[in-house]
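Design a sequence for this backbone.
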């Protein structure tokens, strides 16, 4: 019995030594590629929600790092010209050093999305598919430092349709 116990303790020690924790320094470094987003942004947005003319709103995005730079928190609010809130979303962006991938998790209207985010030189993109629906979102900084973002939706074999377009400026 004693030999079995010593063997088990040794096996656990060997397995524990082989497993390493996350590389938080690598995660922080990867998240710094998105630091250009930090701050408060606001501007015009157009949202198509079905047939008819797109809804014109003022979109505000507040972006900050949390947990010592390991997670980015993005809170978006859309308001009509009368000030009525018609859109609210909360998202987190994080980096998984074991896979080398960014994760985008967003919540709004009782729904959530968990997908991969691709970081570009001055922006990012994400997308997902749900049955015949395909959604592709792209954000980039313009030459003037504006946040330009658009979302295209494709249903089945129909051509892509812009469902969201926004152009935001950083607020002081």
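Sequence:
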């Amino acid at each position: 019995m004693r030999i079995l116990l010593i063997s088990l303790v040794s096996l656990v020690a060997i397995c524990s030594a082989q497993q390493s924790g996350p590389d938080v320094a690598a995660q922080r470094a990867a998240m710094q590629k998105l630091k250009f987003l930090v701050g408060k942004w606001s501007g015009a947005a157009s949202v198509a929600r079905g047939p008819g003319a797109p809804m014109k709103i003022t979109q505000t995005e507040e972006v900050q790092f949390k947990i010592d730079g390991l997670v980015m928190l993005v809170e978006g609010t859309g308001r009509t010209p009368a000030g009525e809130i018609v859109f609210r979303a909360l998202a987190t962006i994080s980096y998984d050093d074991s896979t080398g991938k960014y994760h985008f998790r967003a919540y709004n209207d009782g729904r959530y999305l968990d997908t991969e985010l691709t970081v570009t030189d001055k922006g990012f993109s994400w997308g997902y598919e749900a049955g015949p629906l395909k959604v592709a979102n792209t954000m980039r900084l313009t030459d003037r430092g504006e946040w330009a973002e658009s979302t295209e939706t494709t249903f089945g074999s129909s051509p892509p349709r812009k469902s969201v377009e926004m152009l935001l400026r950083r607020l002081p």
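DSSP finds two helices and ten strands in the chain.
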